[in-house]
């Protein structure tokens, strides 16, 4: 019973990490249907941003880096969208392969710029320690995830930009004839989606390695969250991330880490049998 | 003998919106039945339910007394119900002939499909003839014009040799001459099979419909011959509410 | 130049004969054993690529988990070879009583009795059957599960990718059964022939080339059949196909299973050719690399898939020999370029280049048409 | 259209074969001249220069190249200069086998230095054994192997794992928790640890494995904290160490109350993990940058001069550096680079190396090495706090340890 109680915050904090890394994908994958395999490398870019800012800001780097990493990763996403992805709309599988190529290049670039070994990002002193089994840095990630979700929700539902974004997602053609500049909306969507990856990257420096292959550790999990949550559904992503986080933590507690991963995969396949479109779907009447 | 299509108390709900609300409909063998109604009346949804594309919240559809509930689309096709779509979908990379051939071949055992097609089967030849696409048989369907695509789709439906044909706005965008050809074709098909057509075109309706069902807001508003339906004050009200002059006019 | 023009005048079957002759006669004579072994390896990958070409190019199923099936075939073969070797070498046999001899890695993993899963693989017929049956069975079950629920496109790609990741973790975790990260290695003989022998390797190469040739012809036959047309129809309009009375889930499952079977066979051939099968070969990255190869070669033509696998395999070997660090850049860049500028791959490029040439020779053809073809 | 596809496909395939043929011939001719050699000897260097293992293996390659340069400067071997042929194993085991084949058959190298992971060694082993060629493998490993064509210059288990346990026992740590990456080395090491514990009155509270590259250690940390062991024996590999130590630190675990003894964390990994997170924890190796020998002073100076002052040296690098010198010594003794002669000559060769005296055991081709336990310092270096006093005779099958009798034979 004690173990059960102890695993609960761990599961939720794993969920928070999953949510942070997947949140950007609900934009790029969910809203635009682009399978961005370079998402992991945008996460990495965020982490390296925190690393670079250390020289200027010392131990506060993690906080200062949040907005900066958002901008850096967002800009990288924007460039990717403008130069390549915009030619690929409606061909999601091709974007998958294209962005995989991009991710390879970015990984090697990071290796050449920062060296192959991991680098260190120092956490602020006030993030040391914790309450019971819940360390402060986990708490920080949890709060950050909540704030980010709240921000994304407000943006999508309370601003004109966000509403236009949703309009384009639901019916691109109709949105275009209603006078929405869909190209501009796409840019914005990609900027935000990639920027969120950067934010996730900063958060990950608190708990994981910072190196050129950082992105590869998270990319598969991130996509699974979006798939289980339902395309483009914010609520779905939140519920799926929390569910997968808890599942992961309990499965690992009662078996081991390797088996837990296999169990999570099996549960997702089984789940898709019941809800093939994920938890929350937007219905559409169109044939394919 | 039971009617070929019987719809009982059919309701469909999309996210709280009742697209169909307790629809009953009976179509006898050999009928050429038209479904009309303003936008959002539930015409296409009704066809979708009959062909298995949409699951009803309640009610059922019977084909010659046999319930279609829970069957998948292809199983319903195999029972003899075929359909076309509002925006015609043909396989652009395949030739016209291959499109028709695939439509005709679904009853063959799967293994025999692994063989290369040799020659043109009678059914396919007939469909080519009927649709006037024989000259384009070996062109990819992607190069066809809008009207030709609609014909190809009708041809594919014919090649399936179904008991019941459901057509969703088959003459939209067709020229007058093409409409006439379509109307005659449907009339001749309806001699030994059953045809249900969703259509807005009033003139087309007047010339070819034997029975008309009017849907409005998910319910059956009226049913009968063209004249009866036209004379129905409720039908007039529904249409006049939207359009001042002519009762039921062309367009969608 | 003359030879090239003559070559260009050959027709399909003629080309196939020329390539077959090159592969079966010229290559074994002209290449030294080490290079021939490499070519055999590329051809193994080409067999997997052929399956990807079928599933993805023709059927629209982007499978990022072919490594799983490659692995199932490879491990089936590897297990057989290990058991044969263990029983033929008394020195590596176990000291724990009279049970069947254990493969070397089980001895150092502390496994004392031959696991039940392994025992039947001592029989060559069973092992060879499992090479194909295992992947086909798993692909069929998985295919029916996901395709019936209309999981497709990106979802399918992501699922297969996760499958590859999970499969690798499973293999690595069961060290006593699978050899863990080390995989299975150190094979001595194949059906009584010494694997280190050059003539065995040459024979293996010919077997691989023949298998590839036969599978290629079979795949072409399938693509040109009614079923092949149906497959294209499923790719371009799965929902419409339902209303033609076919179950797309069945069509897709069959093709997925065929591609899985091909990958399994390729894995089984790979093991004696390269001498190792390990989880590193089966994960997400190797699976993706093969998809990349197919895209580079040209996914819409089966020949493109085969060509892509050989070219990319060769490029990887030679470039990583010259400048190791640059390989990732090159692979990534090549891929970005192909996807953006030549989505039909090398085969598509070659086709449009020839058309442009033909157009210049015959100025009567309006230039706009060729421009459109290229774009 | 269909024909055109056929045609271009065939043309390109033909081209590829032609290229492969050319690629095969050119170097072969070149090597023919150099192999038996007028004034040069080719040696192979085969490490991962790309992929996940590149982080570690590149440094070993650097150390080996440094040794080759030094030997060449001192006049070479048998009066001939060494020419390194460097290949990339790409963190991919079949590639190691493939490149090993290339080095042996095409470049005809006299010997090869290479490998890091056990998997890469296992993949190369049949290639070297069957070609009767030599491999020098420079990394500590799980033992239970003694190939006649491989020289093992890193520690085997009785020179690293068992001394580590001896140290913990001396420190009075009775309850251990085992954490490792899921592959051969940790699993074998933990089996030895369990047998040792059973024989020495120690208790194993838990044994956990995570997949390679795993970065989520919340649950595992919780398990460790709950079990309250006296010490943790850590066989995690690579990036997982970073995540593990970060998350352990933030869970409030300190080196004083629960030291984590690592056997795969060396000087170069410390920066990435963050000195804050790991300072005070012990590690077990045979060499540290701070090891106080004249040879090491020279080695560290030379390495920094060659590759930059910020570079650190570590145990596997030193083992790779040693390998080149040991082979050169054996060649001198044999008077030829011929493999069988070198193998015979190698037994008994003893050299003063940076880690102290290293002697080749002719029986199993492993080295006599001194075990050293160090504590990670706040400056990122490692300070030795314990050593075995004298070089330990290598015992890859642990035949000299009665409690281990159940392990090796199977």
From TrEMBL, chain A:
Looking up Pfam families in the UniProt record yields: BPD_transp_2
Q: Entry's InterPro entries?
A: ABC_transp_permease, ABC_UrtB_bac, BCAA_transport_permease
Q: Where in the cell is it found?
A: Cell membrane
Question: What keywords are assigned to this protein?
Answer: Amino-acid transport, Cell membrane, Membrane, Transmembrane, Transmembrane helix, Transport
Q: Name one GO cellular component term.
A: plasma membrane
Q: Which CDD domains match?
A: TM_PBP1_LivH_like (cd06582)
Keyword Ligase listed: no
Q: Where are the transmembrane segments?
A: 6-27, 60-80, 92-110, 139-156, 190-210, 222-247, 259-282
One biological process term in Gene Ontology: amino acid transport
Its record classes its membrane topology as: Multi-pass membrane protein
Q: Which domain of life is it from?
A: Bacteria
Molecular-function GO terms, alphabetical: transmembrane transporter activity
Family the UniProt entry places it in: Belongs to the binding-protein-dependent transport system permease family. LivHM subfamily.
The name on file for this protein is Branched-chain amino acid ABC transporter permease
What is the species listed in this Swiss-Prot or TrEMBL entry?
Planobispora siamensis
Taxonomic classification, please?
A: Bacteria, Bacillati, Actinomycetota, Actinomycetes, Streptosporangiales
From TrEMBL, chain B:
Q: Which PROSITE patterns match?
A: ABC_TRANSPORTER_2
Task: Please list the residue ranges annotated as the ABC transporter domain.
Answer: 5-242
Keyword Methyltransferase tagged: no
| InterPro entries with a match to the protein in the record | AAA+_ATPase, ABC_AA/LPS_Transport, ABC_transporter-like_ATP-bd, ABC_transptr_urea_ATP-bd_UrtD, BCA_ABC_TP_C, P-loop_NTPase
SMART domains attached to this UniProt entry: AAA (SM00382)
Which segments cross the bilayer?
A: none
- Establish whether keyword Acyltransferase is in the entry: no
Output the Gene Ontology terms for molecular function.
ATP binding; ATP hydrolysis activity
Q: Which keywords fit this entry according to its UniProt record?
A: ATP-binding, Nucleotide-binding, Transport
SUPFAM superfamilies (alphabetical): P-loop containing nucleoside triphosphate hydrolases
Q: Which GO terms describe its cellular component?
A: plasma membrane
Q: Which Gene3D superfamilies match?
A: P-loop containing nucleotide triphosphate hydrolases
Q: From the Swiss-Prot or TrEMBL record, give the protein name.
A: ABC transporter ATP-binding protein
| Organism of provenance | Planobispora siamensis
From TrEMBL, chain C:
Record the organism: Planobispora siamensis
Read off the lineage from the record.
Bacteria, Bacillati, Actinomycetota, Actinomycetes, Streptosporangiales
Cellular localisation: Cell membrane
Would the keyword GTP-binding be found if you checked this record's keyword annotation? no
- Per its record, how is this protein called by name? Urea ABC transporter permease subunit UrtC
Which controlled-vocabulary keywords does the entry list?
A: Cell membrane, Membrane, Transmembrane, Transmembrane helix
* Cellular component per GO, a single term: plasma membrane
Please give, as recorded in its UniProt entry, the membrane topology of this protein. Answer: Multi-pass membrane protein
Classify the main location. membrane
From TrEMBL, chain D:
Write down the Gene3D superfamilies for this protein, in alphabetical order.
3.40.50.2300
Signal peptide start-end:
1-28
- Which of UniProt's keywords are assigned here? Signal
Q: Does the keyword Signal apply?
A: yes
The UniProt entry, under PROSITE patterns, shows:
PROKAR_LIPOPROTEIN
* Pfam families documented for this protein: Peripla_BP_5
**Source species, domain of life:** Bacteria
A GO biological process of this protein is:
amino acid transport
The name of this protein is Urea ABC transporter substrate-binding protein
Species: Planobispora siamensis
């Amino acid at each position: 019973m004690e173990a059960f109680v102890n695993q609960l915050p761990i599961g939720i904090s794993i969920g928070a990490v999953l949510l942070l890394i997947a949140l950007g994908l609900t934009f790029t994958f969910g809203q635009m249907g682009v399978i961005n395999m370079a998402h992991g490398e945008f996460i990495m870019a965020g982490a390296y941003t925190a690393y670079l800012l250390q020289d200027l800001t010392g131990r506060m780097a993690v906080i200062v880096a949040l907005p900066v990493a958002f901008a850096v990763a967002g800009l990288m996403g924007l460039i990717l969208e403008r130069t390549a992805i915009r030619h690929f709309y409606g061909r999601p599988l091709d974007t998958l392969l294209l962005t995989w190529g991009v991710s390879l290049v970015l990984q090697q670039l990071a290796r050449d710029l920062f060296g192959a070994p991991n680098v260190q990002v120092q956490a602020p002193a006030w993030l040391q320690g914790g309450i019971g089994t819940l360390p402060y840095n986990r708490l920080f990630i949890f709060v950050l995830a909540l704030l980010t979700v709240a921000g994304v929700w407000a943006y999508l539902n309370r601003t004109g930009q966000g509403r236009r974004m949703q309009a384009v997602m639901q019916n691109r053609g109709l949105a275009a004839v209603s006078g929405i500049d869909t190209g501009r909306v796409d840019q914005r969507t990609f900027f935000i989606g990639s920027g969120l990856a950067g934010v996730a990257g900063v958060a990950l420096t608190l708990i994981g390695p910072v190196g050129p292959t950082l992105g590869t550790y998270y990319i598969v999990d991130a996509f699974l969250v979006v798939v289980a949550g339902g395309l483009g559904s914010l609520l779905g992503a939140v519920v799926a991330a929390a569910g997968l986080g808890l599942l992961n933590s309990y499965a690992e507690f009662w078996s081991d880490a390797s088996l837990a991963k296999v169990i999570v995969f099996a549960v997702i396949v089984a789940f898709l049998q019941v809800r093939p479109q994920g938890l929350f779907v937007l219905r559409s009447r169109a044939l394919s | 003998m039971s009617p070929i299509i019987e719809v009982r108390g059919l309701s469909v709900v999309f996210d709280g919106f009742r697209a169909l609300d307790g629809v009953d409909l009976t179509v006898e063998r050999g009928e050429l039945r038209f479904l009309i109604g303003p936008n959002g009346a539930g015409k296409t949804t009704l066809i979708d339910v009959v062909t298995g594309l949409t699951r009803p919240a309640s009610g059922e559809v019977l084909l010659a007394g046999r319930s279609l509930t829970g069957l998948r689309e292809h199983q319903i096709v195999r029972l003899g119900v075929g359909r076309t779509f509002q925006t015609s979908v043909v396989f652009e990379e395949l030739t016209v002939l291959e499109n028709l051939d695939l439509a005709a071949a679904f009853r063959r055992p799967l293994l025999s499909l692994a063989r290369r097609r040799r020659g043109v089967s009678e059914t396919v030849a007939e469909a080519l003839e009927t649709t006037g696409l024989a000259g384009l048989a070996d062109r990819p369907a992607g190069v066809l014009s809008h009207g030709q695509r609609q014909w190809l789709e009708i041809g594919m439906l014919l090649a399936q040799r179904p008991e019941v044909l459901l057509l969703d706005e088959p003459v939209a965008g067709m020229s007058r001459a093409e409409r006439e050809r379509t109307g005659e074709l449907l009339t001749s098909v309806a001699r030994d099979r059953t045809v249900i057509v969703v259509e807005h075109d009033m003139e087309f309706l007047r010339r070819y419909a034997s029975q008309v069902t009017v849907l409005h807001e998910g319910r059956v508003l009226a049913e009968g011959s063209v004249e009866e339906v036209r004379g129905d004050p409720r039908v007039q009200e529904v249409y006049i509410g939207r359009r001042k002059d002519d009762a039921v006019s062309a367009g969608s | 130049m003359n030879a090239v023009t003559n070559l260009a005048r050959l027709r399909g079957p003629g080309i196939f004969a020329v390539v077959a002759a090159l592969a079966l006669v010229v290559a074994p004579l002209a290449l030294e054993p080490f290079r021939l072994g490499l070519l055999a390896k590329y051809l193994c990958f080409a067999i997997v690529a052929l399956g990807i070409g079928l599933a993805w190019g023709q059927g629209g199923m982007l499978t990022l988990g072919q490594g799983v099936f490659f692995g199932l075939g490879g491990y089936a073969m590897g297990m057989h070879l290990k058991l044969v070797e263990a029983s033929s070498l008394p020195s590596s046999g176990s000291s724990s009583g009279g049970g069947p001899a254990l493969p070397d890695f089980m001895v150092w993993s502390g496994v004392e009795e031959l696991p039940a899963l392994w025992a039947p693989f001592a029989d060559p017929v069973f092992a060879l059957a499992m090479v194909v049956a295992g992947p086909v069975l798993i692909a069929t079950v998985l295919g029916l599960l996901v395709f019936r629920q209309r999981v497709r496109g990106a979802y399918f790609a992501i699922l297969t990718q996760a499958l590859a990741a999970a499969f690798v973790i499973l293999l690595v975790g069961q060290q006593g059964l699978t050899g863990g990260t080390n995989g299975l290695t150190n094979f001595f003989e194949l059906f009584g022939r010494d694997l280190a022998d050059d003539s065995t390797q040459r024979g293996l190469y010919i077997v691989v080339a023949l298998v590839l040739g036969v599978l290629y012809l079979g795949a072409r036959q399938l693509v040109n059949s009614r079923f092949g047309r149906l497959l294209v129809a499923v790719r371009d309009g799965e929902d419409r196909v339902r209303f033609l009375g076919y179950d797309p889930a069945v069509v897709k499952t069959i093709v997925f299973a065929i591609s899985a079977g091909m990958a399994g066979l390729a894995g089984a051939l790979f093991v004696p050719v390269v001498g190792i099968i390990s989880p590193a070969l089966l994960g997400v990255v190797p699976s993706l690399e093969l998809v990349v190869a197919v895209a580079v070669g040209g996914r819409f033509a089966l020949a493109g898939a085969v060509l892509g696998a050989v070219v990319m395999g060769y490029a990887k070997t030679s470039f990583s020999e010259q400048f190791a660090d640059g390989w990732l850049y090159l692979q990534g860049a090549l891929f970005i370029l192909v996807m953006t500028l030549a989505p039909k791959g090398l085969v598509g490029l070659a086709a449009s280049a020839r058309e442009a040439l033909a157009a210049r020779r015959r100025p009567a053809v309006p230039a706009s048409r060729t421009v459109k073809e290229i774009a | 259209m269909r024909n055109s596809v056929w045609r271009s496909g065939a043309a390109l395939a033909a081209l590829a074969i032609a290229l492969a043929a050319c690629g095969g011939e050119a170097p072969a001719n070149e090597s023919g001249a150099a192999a038996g050699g007028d004034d040069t000897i080719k040696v192979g260097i085969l490490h991962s220069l790309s992929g996940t293992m590149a982080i570690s293996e590149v440094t070993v390659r650097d150390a080996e190249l440094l040794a080759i340069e030094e030997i060449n400067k001192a006049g070479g071997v048998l009066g001939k200069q060494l020419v390194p042929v460097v290949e990339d194993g790409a963190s991919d085991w079949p590639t190691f086998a493939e490149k090993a084949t290339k080095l042996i058959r095409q470049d005809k190298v006299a010997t090869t230095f290479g490998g890091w992971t056990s998997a890469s060694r296992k993949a190369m082993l049949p290639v070297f054994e069957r070609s009767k060629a030599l491999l020098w493998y420079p990394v500590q490993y799980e033992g239970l192997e003694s190939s006649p064509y491989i020289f093992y210059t890193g520690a085997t288990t009785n020179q690293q794992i068992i001394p580590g346990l001896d140290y913990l026992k001396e420190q009075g740590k009775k309850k251990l928790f085992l954490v490792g990456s899921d592959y051969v080395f940790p699993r074998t090491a933990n089996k030895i640890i369990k047998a040792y514990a059973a024989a020495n009155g120690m208790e194993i509270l838990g044994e956990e494995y995570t997949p390679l590259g795993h970065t989520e250690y919340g649950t595992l940390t919780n398990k460790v904290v709950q079990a309250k062991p006296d010490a943790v024996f850590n066989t995690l590999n690579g990036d997982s160490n970073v995540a593990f130590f970060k998350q352990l630190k933030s869970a409030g675990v300190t080196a004083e109350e629960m030291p984590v003894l690592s056997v795969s964390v060396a000087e170069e990994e410390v920066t990435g993990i963050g000195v804050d997170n790991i300072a005070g924890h012990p590690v077990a190796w045979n060499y540290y940058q701070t090891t106080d020998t004249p040879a090491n002073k020279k080695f560290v100076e030379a390495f920094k001069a060659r590759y930059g002052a910020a570079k650190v040296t570590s145990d596997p690098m030193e083992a790779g550096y040693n390998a080149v010198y040991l082979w050169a010594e054996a060649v001198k003794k044999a008077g030829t680079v011929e493999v069988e002669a070198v193998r015979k000559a190698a037994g008994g060769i003893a050299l003063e190396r940076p880690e102290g005296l290293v002697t080749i055991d002719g029986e199993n081709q492993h080295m006599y090495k001194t075990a050293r336990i160090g504590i990670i310092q706040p400056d990122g270096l490692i300070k030795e706090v314990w050593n075995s006093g004298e070089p330990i005779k290598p015992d890859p099958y642990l035949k000299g340890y009665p409690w281990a009798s159940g392990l090796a034979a199977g």
